[in-house]
């Protein structure tokens, strides 16, 4: 398979003014500026192959946006290298820009006072998309996202979800081969989140596009990404499948018994840590190795109607990972 994105020890430091609080701090800063360096991205290395759809996750301030900005050429790396489609992003060659797109959920590119379609036309011109190709792709995208009517409306009158869908179309008019999606589902309701991520998957499959997606909603990555890369404090702490992540970092499974009669949580503590219990249905955390023993204990000592044994949820594993700082590959 062809490597489309390559990062080698990519780092980014920001130098910021260190200022003491209050008036005295402001006055002092007038005479002597002190600087502090923030290592936002530290020696990050990974490769992404053509057509991969990779979830890039991590807590606030971990370095996700900074990495995506370097990959799309908006920020100059402090050290290390990155290549996208064989180009050095920071050169921002037209041939490079024609093949990528960066979508930021928190920023918008659509013209506020005009119908969304006007921005699409503008992008068509910028990227020199032929009339024929434009018609075809717009038709397909508008159909896939169900905005055929809405896109003729003034952007300011759109709902957040409608606007996000049009943002996506505006970013895809030139059919980019590589897509950097920075929190494209932020602020959307659950139904709209699902629609947007299904669209991303469809776009990835249909055009064999390579996609890096960041999100704080674990459903986004869980449902469409086979591979996830986790960054924490600028360092990659995990790169692999969700199954591997769960096996590696969660040393427990969850037993979910359904009882025939009411059972107190107190009695269940001998099985494991009771996370939830409404008397009839309980969720109990049990060490991976103890699962057979504890499951049989549960079945013998309680009146169990049904029992599920599940892997922990991705969101719980990730939450626990970021709670501890010690996890490193
Ligand atoms: N232009 C900048 N100047 C100074 N510091 C910056 C700049 N941009 C980002 N940072 C800092 O770099 C670090 C990484 O920020 P970044 O935006 O990449 O995080 P993130 O992973 O995208 O977080 P979030 O999930 O909140 O979007 C943070 O400490 C941030 O404050
Ligand atoms: Mg960010």
Give an overview in words:
The chain is of the alpha/beta class and 329 residues long. The protein folds into two domains: 3-246, Rossmann fold (3-Layer(aba) Sandwich); 251-310, Alpha-Beta Plaits. It has helices spanning 22-31, 64-71, 94-97, 116-126, 131-145, 160-172, 190-207, 218-224, 242-249, 265-268, 291-301, 314-323; strands at residues 3-18, 34-49, 53-57, 79-84, 100-104, 178-182, 210-214, 227-232, 235-241, 252-259, 273-277, 282-287, 304-310. Magnesium ion (MG) binds next to helix 2.
Structural topology:
Layout: E1 3-18, H1 22-31, E2 34-49, E3 53-57, H2 64-71, E4 79-84, H3 94-97, E5 100-104, H4 116-126, H5 131-145, H6 160-172, E6 178-182, H7 190-207, E7 210-214, H8 218-224, E8 227-232, E9 235-241, H9 242-249, E10 252-259, H10 265-268, E11 273-277, E12 282-287, H11 291-301, E13 304-310, H12 314-323
Parallel strand pairs: 3-7, 3-8, 5-6, 6-7
Antiparallel strand pairs: 1-2, 1-4, 8-9, 10-12, 10-13, 11-12
Helix pairs in contact: 4-6, 5-6, 7-8
The structure holds adenosine-5'-triphosphate and magnesium ion.
Which ligands does the model contain, each kind named once? Answer: adenosine-5'-triphosphate, magnesium ion
Q: How many helical stretches?
A: 12
CATH architecture of the largest domain: 3-Layer(aba) Sandwich
> In which range does the helix fraction lie?
25-40%
CATH homology superfamily name of the largest domain: P-loop containing nucleotide triphosphate hydrolases
What is the general shape? globular
CATH topology of the largest domain: Rossmann fold
Q: Which percent band covers the strand fraction? A: 25-35%
Q: What is the tally of beta strands?
A: 13
**Biggest β-sheet: strands ordered side by side in the sheet:** 5-6-7-3-8-9
pLDDT < 50 stretches: 325-329
CATH first level of the largest domain: which class?
Alpha Beta
| Rg computed from alpha carbons, rounded to a whole number of angstroms | 24 Å
The major beta sheet can be summarized as: 6 strands, mixed
Average of the residue pLDDT scores: 91
Order of helices and strands: EHEEHEHEHHHEHEHEEHEHEEHEH
Structural class: alpha/beta
Distance between the termini: 25 Å
Query: How many separate structural domains?
Result: 2
């Amino acid at each position: 398979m062809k490597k489309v994105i390559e990062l080698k020890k990519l780092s980014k430091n920001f130098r910021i003014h260190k200022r003491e609080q209050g008036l005295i701090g402001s006055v002092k800063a007038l005479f002597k500026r002190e600087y502090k360096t923030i290592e936002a991205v530290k020696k990050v290395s990974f490769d992404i192959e053509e057509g991969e759809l990779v979830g890039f996750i991590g807590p606030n301030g971990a370095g996700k946006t900074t990495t995506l900005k370097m990959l799309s050429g908006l920020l100059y790396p402090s050290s290390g290298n990155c290549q996208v489609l064989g180009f050095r992003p920071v050169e921002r060659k037209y041939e490079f820009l024609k093949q990528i797109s960066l979508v930021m959920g928190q920023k918008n590119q659509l013209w506020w006072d005009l119908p969304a379609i006007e921005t699409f036309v503008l992008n068509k011109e910028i990227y020199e998309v032929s009339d024929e190709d434009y018609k075809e792709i717009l038709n397909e995208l508008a159909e896939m996202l169900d905005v055929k009517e809405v896109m003729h409306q003034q952007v300011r009158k759109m709902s957040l979800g409608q606007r996000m869908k049009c943002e996506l179309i505006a970013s895809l008019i030139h059919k980019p081969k590589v897509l950097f999606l920075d929190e494209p589902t932020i602020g959307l309701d659950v139904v709209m989140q699902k629609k947007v991520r299904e669209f991303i998957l469809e776009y990835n499959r249909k055009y064999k596009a390579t996609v890096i997606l960041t999100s704080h909603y674990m459903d986004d990555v869980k449902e469409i990404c086979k591979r996830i890369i986790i960054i924490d404090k600028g360092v990659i702490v995990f790169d692999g499948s969700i199954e591997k992540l769960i096996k590696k970092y969660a040393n427990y499974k969850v037993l979910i018994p359904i009882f025939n009669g009411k059972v107190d949580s107190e009695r269940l503590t001998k099985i494991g840590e009771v996370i939830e219990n409404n008397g009839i249905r309980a969720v109990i955390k049990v060490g991976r190795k103890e699962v057979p023993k504890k499951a049989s204990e549960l079945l013998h000592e309680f009146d169990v109607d049904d029992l599920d044994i599940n892997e922990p949820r991705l969101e719980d594993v990730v939450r626990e990972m970021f709670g501890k700082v010690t996890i490193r590959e």
